[in-house]
Design a protein that fits this description.
Blueprint: E1 3-8, H1 11-26, E2 30-34, H2 43-48, E3 67-70, H3 98-110, E4 113-118, H4 132-143, E5 146-150, E6 174-177, E7 189-194, H5 214-229, H6 232-253, E8 257-263, E9 266-274, E10 279-280, H7 282-294, E11 300-302, E12 306-309, H8 317-321, H9 325-332
Parallel strand pairs: 2-3, 2-4, 4-5, 5-6
Antiparallel strand pairs: 1-7, 6-7, 8-9, 9-10, 9-12, 11-12
Length: about 325
């Protein structure tokens, strides 16, 4: 649907514009977000973020008041009723969506939350259980909170849909884009909001020196044109599904892989020392990262023991299978 856009030079700034807009639109100041999330390194973004690296220490000091947090979804390690099958997928008949109930509980108890701010798919990655975002959307509607989706790492096709939120059928009120918007080269980000949230004309929510930069704006347009013209969203879905199938095969063959999960070209391999106890194999994951790097395969680890693979949208199945790259991951393990 039609909306309004304010550009910034980076994702942190765009998140903070979203926070300001939510405050202006609701007359409230509290936010609800998730532990372990990352929304940027500025004071506002660090406040709603959930990583201790950006929140603790005397150099940081007090963050924004009213920044509430709850536990995020994470089916593989869920302790609240999300049993999973051998492929790490939730068994729907037993899932109680207790993770979504936490959000509803806080919104009910607080009663004056301006916005729920979240990554629709956690870039670890963790994929929400079916029905999660619909339940959160309903809770936001019931208690007057806006839903803000941070799609900086997941938007523009990474998960096999243009926006990661499309997988879950829950439209946000405000959406934040960055990173890929400038083709991964030039700094441009955006806060996109519904038309009826255009309520802050008297305020300077942005006012960043280079926010209306014609060079970066043209780069963003070129990026969108290439994604559309070359069918890169569909390509990410197709190549990602192929990669996930191969990773599930590796999981069945090798006990050190406790879980594989992902959507599109956002893929994760969780390494464990004991599948039954789901004991993280963090040291092993770090060794794997450097062994793979020595073989020319670059990725990162998140949460200590998750090998996170985020190939570019232009990756083909032939390239994914070239020299058995996924087998190289196991050989490095």
């Amino acid at each position: 649907q039609a909306g309004r856009v304010l550009f910034t030079t980076g994702g942190t700034d765009a998140v903070e514009v979203a926070i300001k807009l939510a405050r202006a639109a609701t007359g409230r100041f509290k936010t609800l977000s998730f532990w372990d999330s990352f929304h940027g390194a500025g004071f506002g973004a660090s406040s709603v973020g959930g990583e201790s690296l950006f929140r603790h220490g005397s150099a940081v000091g007090p963050l924004l008041p009213g920044s509430e947090h709850v536990a995020p979804f994470g089916c593989y390690r869920c302790a609240y009723g999300h049993p999973v099958d051998t492929n790490g997928q939730p068994r729907l008949e037993q899932c109680r969506l207790s993770c979504a109930a936490m959000v509803k509980y806080v919104l009910e108890r607080e009663g004056d939350v301006a916005a729920v701010i979240a990554e629709p798919a956690r870039a670890v990655p963790y994929i929400p259980p079916p029905g999660y975002w619909q339940a959160v959307r309903e809770a936001c509607n019931a208690h007057g909170a806006l839903l803000v989706f941070d799609e900086i790492p997941t938007g523009l096709g990474k998960t096999g849909r243009f926006f990661a939120a499309e997988h879950d059928g829950a439209a946000p009120d405000i959406l934040v884009l960055g990173k890929a918007l400038g083709g991964g080269v030039l700094p441009i980000a955006a806060c996109v909001a519904r038309e009826d949230l255009n309520v802050a004309g008297a305020y300077a929510f942005g006012h960043y020196t280079h926010e209306k930069n014609p060079v970066t704006a043209r780069a963003a347009l070129a990026t969108l044109e290439v994604i559309d013209r070359e069918g890169l969203v569909d390509n990410a879905a197709r190549v990602g599904a192929h990669a996930l199938d191969r990773l599930h095969d590796l999981q069945r063959r090798h006990a050190v892989i406790g879980d594989v999960r992902g959507r599109g070209l956002l893929l994760g391999i969780e390494l464990v020392a004991d599948r039954g106890a789901k004991t993280p194999a963090s040291d092993f994951a770090e060794q794997t990262l450097y062994r793979a790097l020595s073989r020319g395969l670059s990725f990162k680890t998140t949460m200590g023991n998750v090998l996170t693979l985020t190939p570019p949208l232009i990756t083909t199945i032939t390239q994914m299978d070239a020299d058995d790259q996924l087998d190289q991951v196991y050989e490095a393990i």
